[in-house]
Amino acid sequence: MALYVYKFGGTSVGTVERIKAVAEKVKKARDAGDQIVVVVSAMSGETNRLVALAKEMQPQPTDRELDVLLSTGEQVTIALLSMALHQLGCEARSYTGAQVRILTDSAHTKARIREIDEANMRADLDAGRVVVVAGFQGVDEHGNITTLGRGGSDTTGVALAAALKADECHIYTDVDGVYTTDPRVVPKARRLDRITFEEMLEMASLGSKVLQIRSVEFAGKYNVKLRVLSSFMEGNGTLITYEESEMERALISGIAFNRDEAKLTLTGVPDLPGVASKILGPIAAENIEVDMIVQNISANGTTDFTFTVNRNDFARAQKVLEGLRADLGGNTTIIGDNSIVKVSIVGVGMRSHAGIASTMFKVLADEGINIQMISTSEIKISVVVDEKYLELAVRALHKAFGLDQE
Ligand code: ASP
Ligand code: MG
């Protein structure tokens, strides 16, 4: 007998028919002898609808009331799914976050889970019932309803799996797993059977939006085996797990990319102590996140300083720099470019292999693609290129690193 936590996202429970299909799937697993805890999201579009309703009432509703409102979406789904299970003759019981007692801190709309009381769930499971839990919500020590941030049901699923020491946490969604890259860009992209937590974090933060990043961090921390799979198709999906040494691994697991990038360069900056902080301090003070940073070697006492930001922050960052120019003295000029993209190769295999970077650069050179910036970490190499080369770069790298589907 195994214990599984199944999490179904909004599209998987988007209609009455789909909730019935989820119930069939859950019942089948229970009938096969497994213990099942189901975590559900609100029906698709529901959370957005509630947010819009709140905005109509008040431009800036308090976070406490927002949480009371937003948590209702999931409460609808747990009741409907439990009814669907009952209709199939499958015993089941629904729980809101507070009823389980998923204790969180008091940071409304972005609360963090502190503790989970498993007693109620355990009693139901032992009595042969399916436990249906509302995702995305908890309760703070004062009894206030809290929510975990958009996409937070993934985190609920993983947290319950950790608390119950489940054999696996299945995240059912509208894709059938994690792919080597976006299949819309590379039709030959392959579904991965396995990927490590670290790789998944790099892929997720680089724009492959399959899972809430926090849920992957959580799963890594508590060593919860996570599996991403389709609620509409049969298949084994992708298992996200720790590296297994005996596993025959590809050097590169995937190619991630991000279109929302912009680049700012300050030329002729005096090469003196404190200049980098003089530039990036005011940027941080404006709450603008900086990604890559490059400072050139200096010539004649001045240097060029380049960094990237999210494209949405481009205009604001440019304005901040304009304000700094006089302060930096010299003949500082500002060059902005918001038509760049970041392309990254990701793989734990590169830790133990030389020459991955040079292969990447050769592939791009052969396609006539100019690399504007480079940054590396232990398991990732990223380059910034002109946005017009995005598809070409991703396809060429995908092929060169042997990721194309035969
Ligand atoms: N319903 C919430 C949202 O739309 C939580 C979730 O679906 O994970 O963000
Ligand atoms: Mg989601």
TrEMBL record:
Record bears the keyword Kinase: yes
Domain ACT: residue ranges: 264-343, 345-406
GO cellular component term, pick one: cytosol
EC identifiers of the protein: 2.7.2.4
Tree of life domain: Bacteria
GO terms, molecular function: aspartate kinase activity; ATP binding
Gene3D superfamilies, alphabetized: Acetylglutamate kinase-like, VC0802-like
NCBIfam families: asp_kin_monofn (TIGR00656), asp_kinases (TIGR00657), PRK06635.1-2 (NF005154), PRK06635.1-4 (NF005155)
PANTHER family named in the record: ASPARTATE KINASE, ASPARTOKINASE
Protein name from the UniProt record: Aspartokinase
